Amino acid sequence: MQSDLIAEVEETLKRIQSQKGVQGIIIINAEGIPIKSTLDNSSTVQYAGLLHQLVMKTRSTVRDLDPQNDLTFLRVRSKKNEIMIAPDKDYFLIVIQNPSD
Amino acid sequence: MEIVYVYVKKRSEFGRPCYFSDRPAELHADLLPDAALAATFLARDPCDVGAQCAPDVSEHEVNTERFESESRGINHVEGGWPKDVNPQEMEQTIRFRKKVEKDENYMNTIMQLGTLMEHSIKQNNAIDIYQEYFEEEDEEDEEEVTDAKEQPAAKTINVFRDPNEVKRTASSLSWHPDGNHKLAVAYSCLEFQRAPKDMSFDSYIWDIENPNRPELTLKPVSPLVSLEYNPKDSHILLGGSYNGQIAYWDTRKGGQPVEMSAIEHSHRDPVYKVIWLQSKTGTDAFSTSTDGQVLWWDIRKMSEPTERLVLDLSRKENLENALTAVSLEFEPTMPTKFMVGTEQGLVVSCNRKAKTPAEKIVCTYSGHHGPIYALQRNPFFPKYFLTVADWTARIWSEDIKESSIMWTKYHMAYLMDGCWSPVRPSVFFTVKMDGTLDAWDFLFKRNDPTLSVKVCDEALCSLRVQDNGRLLACGSQLGTATLLEISPGLCTMQRNEKTLATAMAEREAKREKILEARQREMRLKERSRSEQSKEDESRELDGEVTTEDLVARAEKDFFQIVEAELKKMEKDKEDEKVGWKMCCKLLDQNHTLNLTVVSLAELRSTSLFWHHLVGQVSMVTLDLNELRWSH
Description:
Shape of chain A: globular
Strand order of the largest sheet of chain A: 2-1-5-4-3
Strand order of the largest sheet of chain B: 1-28-27-26
Strand content of chain A: 25-35%
Distance between the termini of chain B: 98 Å
Strand content of chain B: 25-35%
Helix content of chain A: 40-55%
Distance between the termini of chain A: 41 Å
Structural class of chain B: alpha+beta
Number of strands of chain A: 5
Number of strands of chain B: 32
Number of helices of chain B: 8
Number of helices of chain A: 2
Shape of chain B: extended
Oligomer: heterodimer
Largest sheet of chain B: 4 strands, antiparallel
């Protein structure tokens, strides 16, 4: 059962990676430690540190505005690429993509 | 009724200390209203009383002291690892990661997040939500809108002050060739023998983001008058110094010059301009100074120049007769030609590849009254070049040597430097001694600058536009380099600008050619007439009137008239303390030159304007401060 799950997780990540324009995937835990990453170590550490803080701030903002609300997804679009962050209670999934043009 | 109060004291009690005590009030006098007096008054109804309902405020001005700020960064190291895991140890971290990956919670979470993420990714790939439709139309609309509404403006972004106590003039600026994030500024004191004793010789390279501290200090042996980055190798800088030597620096090697030219073979006067040449090795440069020479150098061998040219118009290589140069021009697209701007107001065009030194000097362009501080070819149309000298800026065409094709009006202050905009063929900038920066667009307005900005109170001595045309740096007499950003209107090329500029320039050139032709005709006629008259008359006017004769005569006349005028002025100069006005007449052979004079505005220098008549072009410039006469 577990091995199936493991295989599925791997498959999901591979599928995401193979999408058009995806530059990298990082999975970090609630403390900001990168668990899995397709980028090099220094970038990973940089992204993990910075985005972790950003998500915390965003989440607290959303909840301050409306305590019943919660953050489901965060997209940061910049000139060169788009950083998408899917937060959860314990882990964050971060994908860096170059948009379609 | 008289009100009197009497108080009695015994003589023996005089001088005793007072003891005060309370007692009830006593009515001493009671004045009752007198009805008769009331009749002399009239009751006023209503009364106008002013009341103000505004709060009391006062105005205060506060000037804060200069706040020195520094940028610092903090480097974060990995954290968040649990206590038992050492982040440096690869094994431990890998083990931790593997453990997490086996966690079921992790896997479920990732599955969920994965589907969510895939959805977004596919969204991105499906359609570009920020795509611009009708892009071209938008641009056109925007352009027109901005043209109509936007006033050309320049904004000061940063100011770089000379960190030394004793302020020196920022005599030359050079932008870093790649990326333009650095600005090299050369500081020196250009007043003759007025450099203060403890003046520092250093010049600085500034990073434009940090105006508090220069990025690198260059320490030459003598203050640098001109400084240029090597366009091919951005680490190398070449500087021309006040004592005539040339030195080059490598920014990787620090502030000391890598090599200096030998003093016997260098210039004898401050090196006013150095320019890098286009060559395979990227190490060639040439320099010029007021000693009348143009020297070519290869920086690998600085002990002596590779070539020498003496700016002697009679082509005899005579240093005494040479013209003294203050500016130099070289355009990489025309590597064989270069131009020199002289103190005498002539632009000399030279050919590098001439076989004999005599042939090096090709032609001269005259028309300015004072030293030519800036000389630059138009980056889009190399046939036209800009000169900035005395109180005007002029645009010349290479073919027309008698006069410029376009010129600005005579300003109130001396123009010190100027340059073309690298992105717009019809825009150029000039700086003046009263601290203003002017941006001229000769397609838009010919009489006045399109934009005139007062940058500072002291004179601005140098100017350089960055390659993208957007940023400009100008250096002032007190060593302050100001970085300005120009509004997009002045740095984006308009439609048809190139064609319009060429058309205008050609039209002006044609006009000048026609005028020149007419002048020549008239001169020929006169000459033939005067030759006839000379044959008829036996009396000749002293044959060759020598220069000294003329000068002596002129001086005598001048002093006579000055004295007469002074006497007249003292009479009517009682309430005003404005300035002097002098009128002068100079006799020169058959013609009289009427010189009208400018009133002394700032007690800096008086200069005489002159009209030159068709025919004789004999000019006498008088500069009272320096008492120098030149023909």
